[in-house]
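User: Working on a comparison across species. This one is ornithine aminotransferase from Aeromicrobium erythreum. Can you predict its structure so I can line it up against the others?
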Amino acid sequence: MSDMQQTAGIIALDERWGAHNYHPLPVVISEAEGAWVTDVDGRRYLDFLSGYSALNFGHRHPDLVRAAHEQIDRLTLTSRAFHNDQFGAFCAELAELTGTEMVLTMNTGAEAVESAIKVARKWAYEVKGVAFDAAEIIVATHNFHGRTTTIVSFSDDPVAHDNYGPFTPGFVTVPYGDAQAVRDAIGPNTAAVLMEPIQGEAGVVVPPAGFWADVRDACTENEVLLIADEIQSGLARTGRLFALDHEGVRADLYTLGKALGGGIIPVSAVVGRADVLGVLRPGSHGSTFGGYPVACAVGRAVVGLLATGEFQERSADLGRHLHDRLEALLGQGVAAVRGRGLWAGVDLDPLGRTGREVSMALRDEGVLCKETHERTLRIAPPLVITRDEIDHAVDALERALKV
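Assistant: Here's the predicted structure for ornithine aminotransferase from Aeromicrobium erythreum:
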């Protein structure tokens, strides 16, 4: 079988038996290490997406692989019916890293957001005194927090939202980046403000300076929880542990996921104030795999990597170089560049090629990236990438824009 036949055969199998809820680039990856992946035909590509930030530490980081292997060789699952020797240590180490007081472990990012919504509502009824079933949560336009029925209820993306109703009530949407709109939306039934510090799926959108400080003040003044969804933006992606750290602002709750599992297994968490997460009592919330030993072992290794500060520093330093290189392409097929650290949204010239077309041209140049919406590339290389590899990828993008 020729190389092209092998690739085509695998893709055909995916298309025949898998639900068509994704539109992947036609490349079949079979091996990976660091910032590089290899397809079934033996061709290597530089990964410029990092599994939407799930692979912040690159593919198969040796510390993370070792932690997973060692744990799998000892113990895989106990459920939360019993204690295990990894859970408490993981919670303690993650709380220390994030400067928080309590940890709720889950599996996926959407589960973390769902859990934060449940906690905020329960807190509103039991602590703040909001009337039963009246709690409201303020969210932003162009948000992305996951794909469960409740979460898509407050999405304004028609592809994610339409035809999944009836929808969950209790959400108030305001323009992203408008602090006065947040203040105006707060009322006696407001339980929380839930937003991404930097919007990822929307195209790596950074709000105006001062926005988060204003929102924090509004929440504090009105006894409203601030929930920061750091599932994509957190864990060193932007050059700080949290994207919110750039603004000198602390949230009451943070949702974490993606990179927390090191690109090996799904691990997510809600971390924050003990008096808020403390509204959960035995039986009121749970997950069979949430906080299972393998997840905790890998999560502890991730915390260990972040505790050194090396990856935050790499993201900040290399991020400046990445943005300098990308901004040099303005007017050459690029209309705008946004982001922080090793995270960028690149808007393409509206009269030029689509994001899908540029992603395909990049693939042909040996770089893997992916569009969000029609004309924006979302760039998020692994934090282990080198300066020379960034130059290699941006040079490839420059060529792809001219094809």
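For your comparison, note: The first strand starts at residue 29 and ends at 33.

User: Helpful, thanks.
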